[in-house]
Design brief:
mainly beta; 4 strands; 4-stranded antiparallel beta sheet; single chain; about 50 residues
């Protein structure tokens, strides 16, 4: 599963790609627009790729 993340708000932000590998990714649910915090920084999910 690959997540494409951008900081919330306006601006031409550079995207961040997070890839989650392994057998335990199936129970994880993400949706576009959801906000998650990684390393103390808030990101908005712009794409979810299987």
């Amino acid at each position: 599963m690959t997540l494409i993340l951008v900081p919330p708000g306006r601006g031409q932000w550079r995207t961040t790609t997070v890839r989650i590998d392994g057998d335990r990714t199936a129970p994880l649910f993400f949706r576009v627009g959801q906000r998650i915090e990684l390393g103390g920084v808030l990101f908005r999910i712009s794409k979810v790729l299987a």
